[in-house]
Amino acid sequence: MHPLTPDSLKELTAQVTPPCLSLYQPTHRSHPDNRQDPIRYRQGIETLEASLRLVHPDADVQALMAPFRELAGNDDFWNHTLDGLAVLGSADVFRVFVLPRPVPELALAASSFHVKPLRRFLQSVDRYQVLGLSRDKARLFEGNRDGLTEVDLAADVPRTSTEALGDQLTEPHQTVSSRGGIGPGSTPLMHSTGGKKDEVDLDADRYFRALDRALIEHHSKPSGLPLLLAALPEHHHRFRQASHNRLLLPDGLEINPEALDIRTLSERAWEVVEPQYLARQQAWGDAYGVAHAKGLGSDEIHEVARAAAQGRVATLLIEDERQVAGSLDASTGHVELTDDLGSPSVDDLLDDIGELVERMGGEVHVIAAARMPTNTGLAATFRH
């Protein structure tokens, strides 16, 4: 199994040797539902093999299918699946991604990997992280509308204030007073300019700064995900003052995260994130409408493909579960439409155009059909 990150997506969309095999299916976490998962997987393998045999010799087919078949016989793997599975392989790479959300079933052999479901999963639009924070302890969670799972913090991220500060305690500042008397028999009085609360607050500030730096470096930067803060009200202000994390959301949960189980925390967190999620999708649709009215937008696949090849697409919206069969010449943007996704020379054009737009520096967002501003499966805004 491999962790799904933006870097792994870049690897899959880089130059690889075709044919590229993409197998997706929903899976199950527990018995007896998961007994059907390896059966469906083997059916997907047969679909891939039948497609390959249309144009490739038997020896090449067997070599390409070998790691897929090995996974099919791995009983331990099938006993530890989640809600979705993506298996992608070619002569160059073989990657297995276990996903905490279902994916549409698909078995496709083509000239490039089908990565639209992975791209949607990686999008920050509906994935986010939650920092459960107390004065001296932190936990990190990651998830989406379907739920949260706890993240193993990187080794350099201090989980507690003790890990961050060690035995170094903040000493109260003291001054000497002579009010106890003057001369050989007098006893100076020691006065603290700070109390125990001041000392604890200073330690909290130092811990929050150290935690913030480490989270940015080891979790926020690599993932690019929004960060929701779940903490008591007094810790919100203090952490936000210390934080330089541009992904920290302005709204958070003012609760004691340790008092909630993970399911309740997930439900409460999504209540905060969902309005922002919907607002972002609405903003993308609105921006497309404005651009289209000015002649700087299109939902026509041939026009969008040509613009993508020219590097003119600034933002592309593509429908998540829709497929348009065809082939794309990435150098010219020329598109050939077909009705058959079963041939290795044919791919999902929405997926291929999305890869091309990203390669040329544009943004790609995969969204549900109900949120699409068009009914063609894609909507592009142009730079010029």
Compact description:
This protein is 38% helix and 23% strand. With 384 residues, the protein is of the alpha+beta class.
Indicate the structural class: alpha+beta
Helix percent reads 25-40%
* Strand content range: 15-25%
Radius of gyration: 27 Å
- Gross morphology: globular
Report the mean per-residue pLDDT as an integer. 89
Report strand order across the widest sheet.
7-6-5-10-11
Please report the total strand number as a whole number: 18
**Main sheet attributes: strand count, strand direction, barrel closure:** 5 strands, mixed
Number of helices: 11
| CA(first)-CA(last) distance | 42 Å
Summed up, the domain count is 3
Low-confidence stretches: 172-194
Order of helices and strands: HEHHHEEEHEEEHEEHEHEHEHEEEEHEE
Structure, described:
The protein is α+β, with helices and mostly antiparallel strands and 384 residues long. The chain has 3 domains: 6-122, 2-Layer Sandwich (Translation, Eukaryotic Peptide Chain Release Factor Subunit 1, Chain A), CATH 3.30.960; 129-273; 295-382, Ribosomal protein L30/S12 (60s Ribosomal Protein L30, Chain: A), CATH 3.30.1330.30. It has 11 helices and 18 strands. The strands form 5 sheets. It has a 5-stranded mixed beta sheet. The chain has a 4-stranded antiparallel beta sheet with strand order 3-2-1-4, covered by helices on one side. A 4-stranded mixed beta sheet has the order 12-18-13-17, sandwiched between helices. The two termini are 42 Å apart. Mean pLDDT is 89; it is low at 172-194.
